[in-house]
Amino acid sequence: MKILFLGSSEFSKIVLNKMLEGGLNVVAVITQPDKPSGRGHKLKPTEVKSYAIEKGIAVYTFDKVRNHIDEISKIDYDLAVVASFGQILPQSFLDIKLTINVHPSLLPKYRGATPIQSAIINGDSITGVTIMKVAKDVDSGDIILQKEFQINGEYYLELEQKLASLGGEMVCEVVEQIKNNIITFTPQDHEKATFVSKFSKDDGKLDFSCDSNSLINKVRALSEEVGCYICLEDRVIKVGKICLANNVENVKQGVILNNKKAFVIGTADGAVEILTCQAPSGKMIGGRDYINGHNDILGKRVL
Fold first, then answer.
1. What is the mean pLDDT of the segment spanning 235-251?
2. pTM
């Protein structure tokens, strides 16, 4: 079976890698155009483009798929697989061949742009991957295969990698179902659908009137991509990793503990320890190292 793959991100690259490891015949890749990156604004290809070229797979870079339907229809493929592509596919594309999507949530929960971050930030213990038939409305298509995955304290990028690996393996299963003519399509319960959108920089501000676990979940979900931070007088401190602070006494909500041994801040139900952080002009360092160099913040309240 000849497969056309559509993807752009690191998630897509991992899915594609698992598909190739599973022996699938990916004949071509469609990805987003190169984008300016870094201080020099040099054009940088997507993760998928670089990987596909390395593997000798034909690559097409289309800014809008709807403008290239004639060209796509001439590609010799039997199935299209989509994973974090970054474009809404038009019906004219979906009409060419069966198109399936790798979505990292248990649909209909978490339709939209941030299913992995949303599962973490909401404190879910179970997430998963859904392989579905692509439909016109976002993430609304019939479910073909769905598998659960236990969340175990992972930060976003680690969980993304694990779900992408699972998704690539599931695509291989679905291809076998198609080959054996045993594929099934189960409609979603649209009344149970929840939608999630992209997070903004403002979402990354840490509010210490929240409980400790909520703060930890936010950092796990957002610190690596969106960015998490605390505001203290005239400075903004970026937070990388965080954990519960144990055996801590006399710490007030929103106040930095006056203790040079750890960077601890009081919360609504206890305290958290900032494990890694970064000053605006510095690099990510250990929380204790930051405290050692900035003793003036001890005992002060976070804004």
1. 92
2. 0.95
